[in-house]
């Protein structure tokens, strides 16, 4: 008689009876091993009551590094910088084509894109407590600092940030807005209506300017708060995911 049982990380086999039927007994060992494994051991050596069902929920904890792709609420992101408690990331795909400002002004602080991105889009796609507000340098391409800085949860990269992360930021067929104005108005009439040009990245990776009322691709960046969120890699799909820690 063959007995097989699992003991977490091993399978115990015992054979009782005379050895006259040894060949037959050995032939049954493979079947006994298989049945014992299916009832107790998962593919990765973990212990499951129902291996097939629980396999979907098997994860390994994964430290996200610069250049890694991960998912938050089923949306794919690329890690630009990783610190102990913060991830700076950009969406891996454009979320659509949008004008920077419907009134054709290049000041991010009052732009219609800022209002929509940090209003309706944020509330529908993020939990605000998972994010850290980002301080955005609005220095113009010509060095003009008239717009100062702005705090937003979601915003395009600045032109300088695009230069810094150019090796890992994808090129999009729709192009990609930056948040950097070309200038902030003329010296005589600062912030005047002629301040409408914004830096954007073409589909071939060239930084040029366009009027703020034109529509180009939008790939927002944000800071994720890892004191709230953790990361794990799905054993089934291989995807890295951010999820809320249980407290």
Task: Write a short abstract of this structure.
This protein is of the alpha+beta class and 247 residues long. It has four helices and 17 strands. The strands form six sheets. A five-stranded antiparallel β-sheet has the order 4-5-6-15-8, with no helix packed on it. Strands 3-16-17 form a three-stranded antiparallel β-sheet, with no helix packed on it. The protein has a three-stranded antiparallel β-sheet with strand order 11-12-13, with no helix packed on it.
Could you explain the architecture of this structure?
Helix content is 17%, strand content 32%. A hairpin with a 5-residue loop joins strand 16 (229-234) and strand 17. With 247 residues, it is of the alpha+beta class. It contains four helices and 17 strands. The strands form six sheets. The protein has a five-stranded antiparallel sheet, with no helix packed on it. The protein has a three-stranded antiparallel sheet with strand order 3-16-17, with no helix packed on it.
Taking the sheet with the most strands, its summary is:
5 strands, antiparallel
- The strand line-up of the biggest sheet is 4-5-6-15-8
Q: How far from one another are the termini?
A: 49 Å
Shape: elongated
Main structural class:
alpha+beta
What is the CA-based Rg, rounded? 28 Å
Number of helices: 4
Mean pLDDT: 83
Unreliable stretches (pLDDT < 50, length at least 5) are 1-6, 36-55
The fraction of residues in strands falls at 25-35%
Compute the number of strand runs: 17
**Elements, N to C (H/E):** EEHHEEEEEHEEEHEEEEEEE
The portion of residues assigned to helices is: 10-25%
